[in-house]
Amino acid sequence: MCGIVGYIGDKKACPILINGLLRLEYRGYDSSGIATIEGNLLSCLKDKGRVKNLYDLKGIDDLVGTVGIAHTRWATHGKPSKENSHPHLDNSNHFAVVHNGIIENYHELREFLQKEGVSFLSQTDTEVIPNLIHYYYQKDNHTDELKFLRAVNRACQDLKGSFAIEVICQDYPDSMIVVRKDSPLVIGHGNGENYISSDIPAILSFTKDFYLLNDYEFAVLTRDCVDFYDIHLNKIKKDIKNIEWDAASAEKDGFEDFMLKEIFEQPKSVRETIGSRLTKEDCNFDDLSFSKDYLNSIRHIYIVACGTAMHAGLATKPIFEKFCHIPVTVDIASEFRYRNPIIDEHTLCLYISQSGETADTIAALKLAKSKGARTLAISNVIGSSITREADYSIYTHAGPEIAVASTKAYTSQVVLLSILAIYFAEVLGKQNEELNCLKNDILELAEKVEKTLKNISDIKAFAKKVYKETDMFFLGRGSDYTVALEGSLKLKEISYIHSEAYASGELKHGPIALIENDVTVISILTDPKLVEKSISNIQEVITRGAKTLVITNQALDDKKFDSMITIPNTNPLISPILSVIPLQLLAYYISKEKGLDVDKPRNLAKSVTVE
Ligand code: M6R
Question: How are beta strands 347-353 and 374-379 bridged, if at all?
Fold first, then answer.
């Protein structure tokens, strides 16, 4: 987690860096800081608190350097405080470092450096890095232009864990070195200037040309060029990747919050994700080159992800199973990676990650690969780490998702996986009328998402009624249960209300004991085959005094419930794409009623790049 930015050019670095940090605040926001070089003077300012506080820091206007690095923190080692904020300097104040990731062996490195006379000012794992660089720098008797790089390279070989690091050195005022291992970092290439960022959207307004680093690749940036080196310091060549996202898509565009904007972008993101993958004539994933023989050899599909992305897997498992007749297990990445799953060459593993940087999901992918399975990444970010690890990658086209709470990425993931399941079924020769109907239903989705978004007044009213609650319940059967899980997660993360999601049929096996007068129960009912049974379950909670909100596409008697939201009818297999929308909006409006920071909920970060 944590966000890092860097700039080297002919403009004052400080405003550019703060601008970048503000866009990366979703990655962490408990403290921030900047270091710049002017002449041979390395200056550093940092403090606890939000990035905007940097504007008020004494001396901030005096940071006139045109080379600088900056950081916004999500604390892992050491509480949020000025001392623990980045950048961190070595004892001689020669080097400044910002770091995203975790140095797992920092204890032993710290002890080693302490024996060498280094004193530490913070409790962070990061502070060993500038001191280790300085240690190797001092030991190097040469004075050539690669001395700085050699020291950074040597220090990195001692680090265990994950890192994206930017380093500046006052002896090399016209360069900056960056390196990554298992943590995100991109290099934006401009005209006479270069940028660093943890993600692409943060610097999209400056450039659309990017270099992507692999693990243990080092980049030396000067104003005019970027040189790349491998771990052995052999020079390597990298191509520029042109990113098509437009800068405006990373702005709020008149919406009060990114989350609301992203909810309302769903017609577009659904449409663009369907794109040319599914048309009336064709379903096309030919870029995957999965032959009929290969798919026939698959005995098991795993869908592995975290949080909302995992819920997208749950929502689409029935489509793979129904049409491809291959058993599917959906697993939480952090569990999958440590439970020795049964995987061989007859296993296909799908990994869903909006950011493509989630540490657990990437580790789970590496595990499956090492056991001989084919791996396919589904990400929203071109060139993200997971797509570079996987055997195959496909992309949702949701555009940048900035709010911590995932919305449009989820619906795009469900769309893309549904089309993928159809494609597999077709390659396997399992076409049938039901499959054709599903294709048509998917093609009508974007319009139905638009319609769903027109109906927000009842959701707002319900949010006003319940925002002071401390507990809520979400119920559903089949696909509706998977949406209940997602609705409950959305509510927890941005409104801080405790909630639980249950399969409606499980209610009487325990949770019903918690239902008493005025408890809020939200039910999703979209599958005509399951409606009767679900209504009986709702009746059971009404009898015990619950306040009920029902989200449905069925013609139900709304007088039975405290509130009812009607959404457009669609194939139950893809109804999560519509039924989740009122739940996203409900979480949003409850959070607003409570006066919370919707886009940056407490303790959370957008991409979880640590375990
Ligand atoms: O970037 P990823 O899709 O890998 O992220 C996975 C989860 O961290 C993410 O979906 C998280 O649960 C969201 N904050 C939920 O809104």
Answer: parallel
